[in-house]
Amino acid sequence: MALKKLGSQTVKFHNPPSIISTYTIVGPKEGEGPLKDYFDFILEDDMWGQASFEKAEAKIQEETIKAAINNGNLTNQDIDFILSGDLLNQIVSSTYTARQLSIPYYGLYGACSTMTESLSLGAMIIDGGFADKVVCATSSHFSSAERQFRFPLEYGSQRNFSSQWTVTGAGATILSSTGDGPYITYATTGKIVDKGIKDASNMGAAMAPAAVDTLITHFKDTGFSPSDYDLIISGDLGKIGKSIVLDLLKKEGYDLSNNFTDCGVEIFDGEKQDTHAGGSGCACAAVVFNGYIYKEMKKGNLKRVLLMATGALHSTIINQQGESIPGIAHAITIDINKD
Amino acid sequence: MENMTNKEYQKYAEKKVPKPTYFKNMLMAFLVGGIICTFGQFIRNLLFKSGLDEKAVAGGTAIILVFLGALLTGLGVYDKIGKIGGAGAAIPITGFSNAIVSPAMEHRTEGLIFGVASKMFIIAGPVLVYGVTSSVLVGILYLLLTKGR
Fold first, then answer.
1. Which A residues, 178 through 237, put their C-beta within 8 Å of a C-beta on chain B?
2. How large is the ipTM?
3. A30, A145, A241, A289: which has the fewest C-beta neighbours closer than 10 Å?
4. The CATH number of domain A183-335, selected from 3.40.50.300, 3.30.1050.10, 3.40.47.40, 2.40.50.150
5. Smallest Cα–Cα separation from A56: which of A26, A23, A24?
6. Rounded CA separation A150/A165 (Å)
């Protein structure tokens, strides 16, 4: 019997895991953005003394996780599992981070939805009684993503208005079976939704249908309405995806115009920082959540938040073979109260 | 969401994307491309003055422009010219140089053989393949059309 299942895709935690520590590291550009004061550490150089962008990303993730463990006054031995993932092929940043930490590791791939994918699974593992402390983490790096998915950095090309800017950084959350909150109380796991978008420079439009699907399912499964939340925030839909979600939800009878935004819209100043449709990448939701949202919840300014990281499960190879880009979105309810 | 077909959604999503600033892009391409070509003409005139013949001047001009494109790529300037100039920066031979040097630099981390040498042509490769192929086809056509005379 799935005692904790609610409706078609949601789980309700009976012993909601508590977030006991977070940490964020971001690159120099993110450190000049509107949310700069919320990040724990801002890099001056996005190579961070490493020989390649991939190694730099792995170091960023490793240092983020170490600092989160340290922040919670814990040691590696206190952590039961790491659940982490990233954008690179074979999720190398996460794997090479886990190699350094010697903590049992589950590698996840959910593209930019990884932050809530790891938080949902981490919360289930703890509520299921399989662990007391779990680290959920993810990272992305503008330069390692550019070279894997697009063009060399020094190549003189123009970016589309719909394109987004991959966030350099990493965020880590430590979930615990005990603690005084904020708590993860619900998790709605997304289905893959693919409306046939093939344009890799318009990820917002590729992911928006999945976001719409997960939001509507979440409201139906839980019986909540948008006004039950202080903030509903998606991962990296950007300006275009955000506007599509608002439109389509309105059509379905949900008004999100007052309390909905997107991490990718908030992290950069699009005009000044020339980021076109906004930020993207696994780290986008990770640093906005572990930086801005968590700290605002701790201060009591936000009491109940629906965080929904969104992923475009994009592979350049199958995209070149003519396939469209599947989208996914996982939502979690974070509450300063247990119920 | 279910009541929207994929086609309808794609059409709707397309409308959400701001239109490219065509006029500004064309103007900048004209200006940047024009400046590069005028500079090329300047080099050409200079080489002629130094007493080189037509063939040597053509080769010399190309060599100097390719070198400058590579140098500006290495200094991290050409990507900025490309961002402003678009096709105006990509079409001249300096752009071709940028297309070869930028992946070569980027993939230095994977070594000299599998990095630099094999990744050097990821952007320029198709241009070379189809450029050479079409020049051969045009050559054959030229031969067929002029042989009888």
1. 193, 195-197, 202, 205, 208-209, 212-213, 216
2. 0.89
3. A145
4. 3.40.47.40
5. A26
6. 12
